Predict the structure.
Amino acid sequence: MANPAENKISEALAAYDFAGEVVGTVRFGKGHINDTFCVYTQTEEGDCVRYILQRMSAAAFQHPDQLMRNIVGVTDYLRGVIEKNGGDGARETMTVLRTKTGDTFFTDSEDGAWRVYPFIERTCCLQSAETPELFYASAKAFGRFQWMLRDYPAATLFETIEKFHDTEDRLAKFEAALAADALGRAKDCAPEIAFVRAHAADCGVAMSALREGRLPLRVTHNDTKLNNVLIDRETGEGICVIDLDTVMPGLSINDFGDSIRFGANHSAEDERDLSKVNFDLALFDVYTKGYLEGAAGTLTDTEKEFLPWGAKLMTLECGIRFLTDYLQGDTYFHVQRDGQNLDRCRTQFKLVRDMEAAWDEMRRIVAKY
Ligand code: ADP
Ligand code: GN1
Ligand code: MG
């Protein structure tokens, strides 16, 4: 287990010059990967200026230097596109605060890698689609993100997590974890194991289309959960896509699909009462509309045709990843209680079943736009 990030906060804070004096630091947000804190500072004039301080997950990211080069490259580029189109470059993308020595991140005495971003104020970060309008706003933001990066030089990006959305590889890793069954947990999840095996052939659908050249490799976000976009409190618009750790070459259908997985339902990702976990076709409809509008013609006809597959595969894959982590002893996704990763896996598989039942309708909705 990694050392609790709290133990190293003061070391990390000392590496930065903030706008004011640091008056407090609290854990922040609902991300599953990094250790995120909000830093409160007070300026000489008495104003509060906030920052996001993060210790990057060592379990997820082995090369923080490469990760930060990706993020600086992408945010600098986005700032250029945003400002060229009359937007606010300080608000519509993130800015990496440099350390006192001018670096993009700080390494603590135990090799933990930390970074700081100015807090983007007057925004909210949603854990569920409170209204269809807000979900639509998130869709437009992620679609626009795809549009803004359509000409980004993909070859300059490092692969921060190898084979991140290679669902075939996720299946193989699951089988390896199951064979090892390091904690003897396989006995608790026979129905889930059977579900994965019954869907083994599905795992190859997008990867085959990519190999055959039917789906193009693009620069994508790869982690398009609703809580990875900041919504302007005043206008209700999705203004800033955050959590850029996994921006790398990928499939647009996966960006679309991961948002559907997380947002097109009305339950928590770890809900234990599966009767509350239901795929919402109306939300699928508004997201499809918003995403395609935001992407403004970037997607090919084949990509559009594959959007329902993106939704199903990201949900299936995420369920497989939660189950794998459960079998391996919860070493990747943060957990707050026992069995949480298995509960998360179960919600994902319930949503996959719902999508299968709604398949023709999903295809009809996509064809409308
Ligand atoms: P994780 O990879 O663990 O999900 P994120 O980068 O998504 O980490 O950050 C976790 C949470 O912190 C986000 O969901 C959001 O609530 C908040 N957050 C991150 N960056 C900012 C920012 N620049 N301004 C405001 N809130 C932010
Ligand atoms: C993680 O970092 P966060 O919490 O936004 C994960 C995603 C999963 C998601 C499931 C780098 O997203 O791939 O879909 O949890 N991110 C990484 O909620 O693995
Ligand atoms: Mg996040």
